[in-house]
Amino acid sequence: VCSGTLLADRMTILTAGHCVSSGGGVPDVDPNGVTVFFRDPNSGPDVQFYYGGPGYTTIQSSEIFVNSAYTGDVIDQNDIALVRLSTAAPEFAQGYELYTNSNLTGQITNITGYGSTSSVGGNVGVNTTDPNRLGWFRQGDNKIDFALGDDLFGDTWSDILGEPASQIEYSYIVDFDNGLAANDASCRITQAS
Questions:
Q1: Which of 116, 132, 144, 123 is nearest to 53 (CA)?
Q2: Distance of alpha carbon 73 from the chain centroid
Q3: 4 Cβ neighbours under 8 A, 6+ residues apart
Q4: Which DSSP string do the residues of the chain spell out, in sequence order?
Q5: Long-range contacts of 132-136 (CB under 8 A, 24+ apart)
Q6: Distance from chain centroid for Cα 155
Q7: What is the pTM of this model?
Q8: Rg value, the chain, Cα
Q9: Angstrom distance (rounded) from CA 30 to CA 26
Q10: Phi-psi domain of 53 (left: phi exceeds 0; alpha: psi -120 through 50; beta: other)
């Protein structure tokens, strides 16, 4: 189960390569083997997407393209795939243009996805005693802090992660702190490195 972004053509989903491939630029699933769920935001309260519910439209894929440079590694800036839909996305689904600026540092981004959550919220994290807390939509704004290949770091991240710089230099980092300088995780990481 993965999240993705509908592109402006309304026929293509941008997602992570690891969602459909173990590497080598080759999909591990059939071209029509991906089911894409779209939820109408006007359909009522948030519900778990794999259990369906009001406002859901599903569309099967027709083609899958994986970045040929994707190695299958956990940290790989080439971890990108496109899922082509068999029909256009529903009208209520928002499509997006690709952002083409070469430097993302300092940009504010909205991070969205479906995942696990607790039944009570707050600092509890995932409540694993309740298996029905999977597949809930969550989103939040965050600032992109830095790229692993920034000149400031030299080969530090390549050495720490054991990956060639050419594979990670455009991997960007965001932290999920509370915004206070004392809790700025990215700042603390960069100072330590």
A1: 132
A2: 15
A3: 13, 14, 15, 19, 36, 83
A4: ---EEEBTTSSEEEE-GGGT-SSTT--SS-TT--EEEEE-TTSSS---GGG--TTEEEEEEEEEEE-TT----SS-TT--EEEEESSPPPTTSPPBPPP--S--TT-EEEEEEEE---SS-GGG---TT-GGG-SEEEEEEEE--EETT-GGGTTHHHHHHT--HHHHTT-EE-----S-GGG-HHHHHHHH-
A5: 132/48, 134/48, 134/50, 135/1, 135/48, 135/49, 135/50, 135/51, 136/46, 136/48
A6: 26
A7: 0.81
A8: 18
A9: 11
A10: left
Q: Which two tokens stand for residue 82?
A: 């496109």
* Per-residue pLDDT tens listing for the chain (193 residues): 788 999 999 999 999 999 999 999 999 999 999 999 898 888 776 666 655 567 789 999 999 999 999 999 888 999 999 999 999 999 999 999 998 888 899 999 888 877 666 666 666 666 656 556 666 777 888 889 999 999 888 888 999 888 899 899 999 988 877 777 777 878 777 776 6
